[in-house]
Amino acid sequence: MISITEQKPIEETMKYLDKCEAVYIIGCGTCTTMLHTGGKTEVLAMKDTLEAAGKKVTGWMVVPTTCDELTKDAMAEQAEELKTANCVLVMSCAFGVHMVNLHTDKPVYPAVNTLFIGQEESPGQFIEACMQCGSCVLGRTAGICPLVRCAKGLFNGPCGGSVDGKCEVSPDIPCAWQQIVDRLAEQGRLNEMEEIEPPRDWGTSQSGGPRRLKVED
Predict the structure, then answer these.
(1) How far is Cα 32 from Cα 83, in angstroms, rounded to an integer?
(2) What is the pLDDT of residues 161-216, one digit of tens each?
(3) Rg (CA), the chain
(4) Which residues contact 172 (CB under 8 A, 6 or more apart)?
(5) Which residue of 64, 89, 170, 207 could cross-link 29, Cys pair, CB 3.0 to 4.6 Å?
(6) Sign of CA pseudo-dihedral 3, 9, 15, 21
(7) What CATH class does 2-115 carry?
(8) What are the two backbone dihedrals, phi and then psi, of residue 131, each rounded to the nearest 5 degrees?
(9) 206: left (phi > 0), else alpha (psi -120 to 50), else beta?
């Protein structure tokens, strides 16, 4: 599983950097390298773009995994180059941006958009696997998430619009609930569909501010 990202339009990135004469660029050696949105090649291309626009790039680096504490050590090693920058441009997922922001008092700006947590179906083809909703139902849906895979996000079974296992929204989208039913049948668990599912706990959703979890010792 990796964070799926896309580069922001350069116009949006340049608007962030409007008041920054000197910029330090940080990329990621994991997810954005794999997706060609923030690896070494893309960081160097961004450097050329910024310099062509009259910006000074004080330095750049590609942290092996921007979203972990290694970023703190990497930034400490580049302290002088970071010190002379007005801001930091981060070409990683949103968590990497957050991590960089923890270890500098400079303005930190993202150069990519984080889309979803996904998996590679085939070379270069990624599909959303999890939106981290906080109330996982995979145990009763044969490991297939209806919130992600169903075009309507239905939790209590299929709608009446699917035809031959395809979603009515688009014939290119398999009906998630058809997939769930088929897999439960293969596993001899189809009778579980008759069980009454309690109301979903929406209190674990992404609304209402940042979610927190305390792990007891």
Answers:
(1) 25
(2) 988 999 999 888 899 999 999 999 999 999 988 888 777 776 666 655 555 545 56
(3) 22
(4) 166
(5) 64
(6) positive
(7) alpha beta
(8) -110, 10
(9) alpha
